[in-house]
Amino acid sequence: MLRQSTPPSPPRLAIIVPVLNEIDGARALTEHLAIWQQRGAEIIVVDGGSDDKSDIVIRERGFHVIRSEQGRAVQMNTGARATTSTHLLFLHADTRLPPQADTLVREHLSSSQAAWGRFDVQIEGHSNLLPVVSRLMSLRSRLTGIATGDQAIFVTRELFEQVGGFPVQPLMEDVEISKRLKLMATPRCLRDKVVTSGRRWDERGSWQTILLMWRLRWAYWRGVPAEQLAFRYR
What we know:
About 45% of the residues lie in helices and about 20% in strands. By secondary structure, the protein is an alpha/beta fold. The chain has an eight-stranded mixed sheet with strand order 3-2-1-4-7-6-8-5, with helices on both faces. Strand 2 (about 40-45), helix 2 and strand 3 (about 65) form a beta-alpha-beta unit.
């Protein structure tokens, strides 16, 4: 009598969230993360030294919180090292994933043709320009193969380790890792949309923010160090 083989378990997905002083959005963030935790994703929140007790609140709500040095790139690398999951997704604290995001990521990363990717983006805010900005961001990303952190970059652990993780720099770490990743594999650009906060656009003004971001990207392309650009971004 042939023994029935046990079907292989699906690849484990880790959702890694860097946070710093997120007390105002802690409840909304944890409610969102609970959806994916209940669906079997491993949730790792990496705190960069919050002094508003947001890390305590998130931990009390049942999530694994670890500490690291401050800096988004450092925090995300720390989170990646804290998990053995085969698939990694990096989520900003003010970004929300689309329905079935975990299934979409697993399907694409399990394909022999895709080892990393990102979602299209929808920026929520008061400005009437934000829908246009959202479409242009997604289009630019699709044409260039460069993803932003707001688009929830996902990647296999193997490829992430091959490129050395996120470069430890204070700005443009998402642009830099995209450049390295696309040398290894073509990104999968999913049309499903993440929803991210347009708070910065509302506070600083849409046109001013558009001009600032283009100036920063142009300067980075010309070789201006990320450390210098970080001062302009603040």
